[in-house]
Specification:
Blueprint lengths: L4 E2 L18 H11 L17 H4 L5 H8 L5 H7 L5 H24 L1 E4 L20 H11 L6 E5 L6 H6 L6 E8 L12 E5 L5 H15 L6 E5 L17 H18 L3 E4 L8 H18 L1
Parallel strand pairs: 1-2, 2-7, 3-4, 3-6, 4-5, 6-7
The structure holds zinc ion (ZN).
Length: about 300
C-alpha cells in the first residue's frame, strides 16, 4: 500500500514579497517528494474540497469563521494571525482543514495518510494566531468524533511551539487528548494546559529530546486512541530560524519514526500534518519536511 498524500495547489496563497511566512514551501515540498520517488511527476495526490463554515464552526466561534469566509477580519484579528486578510488566504484555511480531515479519513481506511499542509495549532476557540487561521487538526478530530467514526483521538504535537489552540479547544473533553512537546521559552508566551505538556529547555539536542518523546508516548499509552493526529513540524531543527531546539535531520527522522511506529505497534491509524518549519532556504526546508513522508512511506 502506498502512502496516501493529500495536497491542493491552493495551499500556496500569494503573499507580498519578503513576507516572513515561508508560503513557497508547499511547491518545494511537492518537488522534493517527486525527487524521492514518493510522488509521480504529475498527480499522485488526493485533493480536498473546501469545508463548509458550519463544519469549521464546530471548534471555532461561528462569527469568526464567517469573518474569515467573508474576508472581513478585524485589523487586530489579522495582526494576531500574521497573514493578510485576502480571499486566497481564506480559501487556503478552508482547504487545509479539509485536507487534514481527508487525510484522517484516508488514515482510517489505509492505516495512515499525510496532509501536505495543516498543523495550525495556535488557532483557538475564538480566533487565529501565529500564522494559524483554523485549527485543522481540531476540526478533523471533532468531525470524526461527532460522526461516531472514532471514540477517542490523540493529538501528538511535536512542532516546536506549544499546541495552545488545540489544548484550549479540547480542554475538559475526555474524547480528545492533547500532547505537546515544545520549547518552553518559545511562542506562545502564555501557554495553555494540554493533557500532557513537555516544555523543553533551549538547545535541547537529539538524544535528550528522544528520551522525553519516549516518556511522553509512554504516558499516552493508557489513553488507547482510535486515531492519532501527528503534527510533525520541523521547527525543532537546530537551523530553524524560529525554533530554539537543536535537533539534527537524523533526530527529526528518529522522532517521526518513533511516533509512527508507536501507533503502528498499537494498530492506531495516523493522520500526519506538516506543521511549522522556517528556513530562508526553501530547498533545505522542503528536505526537512520530506522526512515525515519518507518515514511514513517506509511503514506503508
Ligand atoms: Zn511551530
Amino acid at each position: 500500500m502506498t502512502l496516501p498524500i493529500v495536497f491542493h495547489p491552493d495551499y500556496q496563497a500569494p503573499l507580498r514579497p519578503g513576507h516572513p511566512f515561508p508560503m513557497s514551501k508547499y511547491g518545494y515540498l511537492r518537488a522534493a517528494l517527486v525527487g524521492r520517488g514518493l510522488l509521480p511527476a504529475a498527480g499522485g495526490t488526493v485533493a480536498p474540497a473546501p469545508l463548509s463554515p458550519a463544519r469549521v464552526a464546530a471548534v471555532h466561534a461561528l462569527t469568526y469563521v464567517e469573518r474569515v469566509a467573508n474576508v472581513a477580519l478585524t485589523a487586530e484579528e489579522a495582526r494576531r494571525i500574521g497573514l493578510p486578510n485576502t480571499p486566497a488566504v481564506a480559501r487556503r484555511a478552508f482547504l487545509a482543514a479539509a485536507g487534514t480531515l481527508l487525510a484522517a479519513r484516508l488514515a482510517l481506511e489505509h492505516g495512515h495518510a499525510c496532509n501536505m499542509a495543516g498543523g495550525s495549532h495556535h488557532a483557538g476557540p475564538d480566533g487565529g494566531a501565529g500564522y494559524c487561521v483554523f485549527n485543522d487538526v481540531a476540526v478533523a478530530a471533532r468531525a470524526l468524533v461527532d460522526e461516531g467514526r472514532v471514540r477517542r483521538v490523540l493529538v501528538v504535537d511535536c512542532d516546536v511551539h506549544q499546541g495552545d489552540g488545540t489544548a484550549r479547544i479540547f480542554a475538559g473533553r475526555g474524547d480528545v487528548a492533547t500532547l505537546s512537546l515544545h520549547a518552553e521559552r518559545n511562542f506562545p508566551a502564555r501557554k495553555a494546559a494540554s493533557d500532557l505538556d513537555y516544555p523543553l529547555p533551549d538547545r535541547l539536542a537529539d538524544r535528550a529530546y528522544l528520551e522525553v518523546l519516549a516518556h511522553a508516548l509512554g504516558a499516552a499509552d493508557t489513553f488507547e486512541p482510535d486515531l492519532l493526529f501527528y503534527n510533525a513540524g520541523v521547527d525543532p531543527h537546530a537551523d530553524d530560524r524560529l525554533g530554539r531546539l537543536a535537533l539534527t535531520d537524523a533526530g527529526l527522522r528518529a522522532r517521526d519514526r518513533r511516533v509512527l511506529s508507536w501507533a503502528r505497534a498499537r494498530g492506531v491509524p495516523v493522520a500526519a500534518v506538516l506543521g511549522g518549519g522556517y528556513d530562508h532556504d526553501p530547498h533545505r526546508l522542503a528536505a526537512r519536511h520530506a522526512i515525515l513522508f519518507e518515514e511514513a512511506a517506509r511503514l506503508a
